[in-house]
Amino acid sequence: MTHDFENDAGETREVQSFYDANAEAEWARLERHRTEFAVTLRALEDHLPPPPAAVLDVGGGPGRYAIELTRRGYRVTLVDLAAANLELARRRADEAGVELEGLVQANALDLGRLSDAAYDAVLLMGPLYHLLSEAARRGAVLEARRCLRPGGVIFAAFITRFAPLRDLAARDPAGLLGQPDYVERLWRTGVHDSGEGFTAAYFAHPNEVAPFMEAQGFATLGLLGCEGVVAGHEGEVNALTGEAWTRWVDLNYRLGRDPALWGASDHLLYIGRKGAFPAADNGRRAAAYGRRGDAPRGKAGPA
Questions:
Q1: Is residue 247 part of a domain?
Q2: Looking at residue 149, what is its pLDDT?
């Protein structure tokens, strides 16, 4: 079965246009959703090697995580599809008084300008829910894996299958009556294609995440619901400061690791270590996307 590269190109244009038009909104999103940002940072703190390790942030938008990790002493290369995101990241880094290791405009499906095995960690915390086919998602993960050093750590984000339905219930519950086919298709396939409020997207079932990543040659270190217990109920918590805020972040980080809560979170964060491919997968892992994922590529990146 051949992969539909033309369809990938159409998805790429849609995603690029969306974020070129919404870079400031994407920066502000993690101000509104402080719990997601703080809980994700806790996971990074626990699983990243110490600074000045080299980190590749693929699809990192306007650089929220890249700038914070640079502030903490990491050498971070930020990759994004949208020029507006990279320009905003450059400005925000200047305002923060830090300098990113690199700013690269590229597609997560083709990181050919970046060297093999050049990074201690890769953040893939945006691209996977913008890729509708499993083959494309596999291709993005394999590109990230290629850039990782042996034993390096990946952080991959997924939006859960149930998140858009919670959003519909909160914003427009009567909308369920007007689009029953869309809702049924979303629930069964994970594909969002209503053309409203977001790009076309793929929302993952919690049970598929770890097996999918393990099939691409990662050993699972953890899976985390980034909102803990407060998805859809975070407004008052996100307004807290001081010890009360710290306590809620700690609680949500601990509870977010409970599998019983994964479907109740909007975002899942997979954490895995680069290992060997399953033996049965060696011959087909990258061929499913149409090229060899481990072939030597470009030479950009930290030494």
A1: yes
A2: 98
Domain span including residue 94: 5-161+202-276
Range of lowest pLDDT (35-44, 92-101, 135-144, 161-170): 161-170
- Residue 228 sits in a domain of what CATH number? 3.40.50.150
Query: CA 84, CA 91: separation in Å to the nearest integer?
Result: 11
Within a domain: 282:
no
Contacts (Cβ under 8 Å, ≥6 apart) of 87: 23
> What pTM was estimated for this model as a whole?
0.89
- Residue 183 resides in a domain: no
Q: Using one digit for the tens of pLDDT, what is the confidence trace for 43-91?
A: 999 999 999 999 999 999 999 999 999 999 999 999 999 999 999 999 9
Residue 288 pLDDT > 70, yes or no?
no
